[in-house]
């Protein structure tokens, strides 16, 4: 295996925020199978056999080729499968031990409003084009009790700064179309953080960005989830992204998990032929994004953010 990996490229075995990975699971997925309708009479077995655990404070990755079932697994955990009576879900998804498969829509809404935020690839589809971005972050903020305008503003700016928006007061006044792709994705991250969820599910969040901006946005995401003690589920076809972010990784193929383990072991000593093939298809895991983290952070701070 000729893949080059350095320890600095890898997420490492233990979360940077010091939360012990051996604690009780935040999310436990067991025997998950999802069948989706694809036409009036046709359907596809999108997920066939997934067992997955996310512990508090852990950063977990799912990798695999296009169509392997990564997104549908993430969407099932967030309760965001297509709305159709013909969607069939079997198995178990628990949040802190509470079964969610078959739970009423209200319980899922509760999970999404307080426990799980999802970040997708295309921020423009999720941002309100007619609302200033500061207001959109403000609406996501969970607050108990009353607060002054100044306190609310400070809170909004602090989430924007955590997401890597260096001049939050200026950015907050803008509409989404006035921002670059990288800044829009950072706004989406700020909105996700503002909900103070226990888990952020990021589905190819930076795939549409150029490689340098991608590295900066990912570094901000990593730092902010660690700082706030959140768990992260990173879904990506880009092994370098997962190598740079995640403590553990699940490799999916054809709707099933074929290999799992700590990121370093799986990416340096893959046991399954499928994982070995995936790794061979990547020229070097040290690039394009992994190795850029340190440099990009320096660039980011000198230029004021992507
Ligand atoms: N809304 C949908 N309706 C019907 N089938 C779908 C839907 N979304 C995904 N699928 C199918 O489910 C299977 C798994 O798709 P999924 O999006 O989870 O793959 P993926 O690994 O995330 O791929 P990609 O990286 O391309 O997004 C594929 O066969 C896909 O065509």
From TrEMBL:
Highest taxon of source: Bacteria
Entry-linked SUPFAM superfamilies: P-loop containing nucleoside triphosphate hydrolases
Record's keyword terms, sorted: ATP-binding, Cell membrane, Membrane, Nucleotide-binding, Transport
A Pfam family this chain is assigned to: ABC_tran
GO-annotated cellular components: plasma membrane
PROSITE patterns attached to this UniProt entry: ABC_TRANSPORTER_1 (PS00211), ABC_TRANSPORTER_2 (PS50893)
GO molecular function, a single term: ATP binding
Localization per Swiss-Prot or TrEMBL: Cell membrane
InterPro entries to which the protein is assigned, alphabetical: AAA+_ATPase, ABC_Ni/Peptide_Import, ABC_transporter-like_ATP-bd, ABC_transporter-like_CS, P-loop_NTPase
Keyword Membrane in annotation: yes
Residue stretches making up the ABC transporter domain: 27-279
Membrane topology: Peripheral membrane protein
Region (Disordered): 1-21, 287-306
Annotated family: Belongs to the ABC transporter superfamily.
Protein name: Dipeptide/oligopeptide/nickel ABC transporter ATP-binding protein
Organism this protein belongs to: Planosporangium flavigriseum
